[in-house]
Amino acid sequence: MSILQKVKNAVRSRSIHVSYVDVGSCNGCDIEVLACLAPRYDIEQYGIFVHNNPREADVLLVIGAYTPGWEEKLAPLWEKIPDPKAAIAIGNCPISGCVFARPHSYVDAPVAKHIPIAAEVPGCPPRPTEILTAILSLAPGVFHDYEVKGR
Amino acid sequence: MKRTVDVSIPLGPVHPCFKEPARVKCETRGEYVISAEVELGYMKKGIERIMRGRPWQEVMFLAERVCGICSVIHNMVFIEALEEISGITVPERAALLRVAVNELDRMQSHLLANFSYCYTIEHETLAMYLLDVRERVLDQLERITGARVTCAYIVPGGVRFDLRGEDAARLRAGLAGIEEEVARYTGMFEGGPLIATRSRGIGILSREAAIESYVVGPVARASGMPEIDRRLEHPTYRKLGFSPVSRPEGDNHARVMVRFQEVMASIGIIRACLDRLPPGPVRGGGIPGAGEIAYHGEAPRGELSYYLKTDEAGRVVDISIQTPSIMNIEAACHYLIRGVTSLADVTSTFVSVDPCIACTER
Question: Alpha carbon of B352 to those of B102, B218, B247, B285: distances in Å?
Answer without folding.
Answer: 22, 10, 15, 43
